[in-house]
Amino acid sequence: MTTAREPWLQVLLTDVEAFNQWRRDNPKEPIDLEGHDLSGASLSHASLGDAILRRANLRDANLTRANLAGANLQEADLRQADLTDATLHRVDLTGADMRGAKVGGLVGEGRICLHPACFQNVLYDREQLEGVLEVLNRNAGWHIRYELVPKDAGAGRPD
């Protein structure tokens, strides 16, 4: 439901390009979508930099090539969301559920921040972690060797 406080919300959900123009015209207007249900929304190319999306339901949302730079996605539900080529630079994903989300591509303008604080308590699938490590291994100077095992796999083994 759109309120006087959120005149842009319906525009975001129905016409992303019009929303992006509104953002360009109102760069200091805060975008507060905390706790909103945006599941399944088509937000491809949306300009959501610095948006507050804490505890938002973005499950199955299309966020391809969206700009989420600096966004607060703490505890957000991003399961099965498509974040291909999305800009995730400086995004706070603390406690977010990203299981099954598509993250990657990064062939366009997309960027991802790999600062450990951005990923505290984030839930990932094994395939997602392998994808991130594969991208990191494109670095010309370093090669990352890793072994991914479930936390309980080492139970009973000596340290």
Molecular shape: elongated
CATH architecture: 3 Solenoid
Summed up, the helix count is: 3
Low-confidence stretches: none
Helices and strands, in order, run as: HHEEH
- How many individual domains? 1
Name the beta content range.
Answer: under 5%
End-to-end distance = 54 Å
Within CATH, the superfamily carries the name: E3 ubiquitin-protein ligase SopA
**Helix and strand composition category:** mainly alpha
Measured as a percent range, the helix fraction is 10-25%
What integer is the average pLDDT? 82
SS elements, strand count: 2
Cα-atom radius of gyration: 17 Å
Give an overview of the whole structure.
This protein is mainly alpha-helical. It has helices spanning 9-14, 16-25, 126-136; strands at residues 82-84, 102-104. The chain is built from three helices and two strands.
Entry keywords:
two-stranded parallel ribbon; 159 residues; mainly alpha; Pectate Lyase C-like; elongated
Task: Please give a quick description of this structure.
By secondary structure, this protein is mainly alpha-helical. It has helices at 9-14, 16-25, 126-136, and strands spanning 82-84, 102-104. It has a single domain (30-147), classed as Pectate Lyase C-like, CATH 2.160.20.80.
Lay out the secondary structure.
Blueprint: H1 9-14, H2 16-25, E1 82-84, E2 102-104, H3 126-136
Parallel strand pairs: 1-2
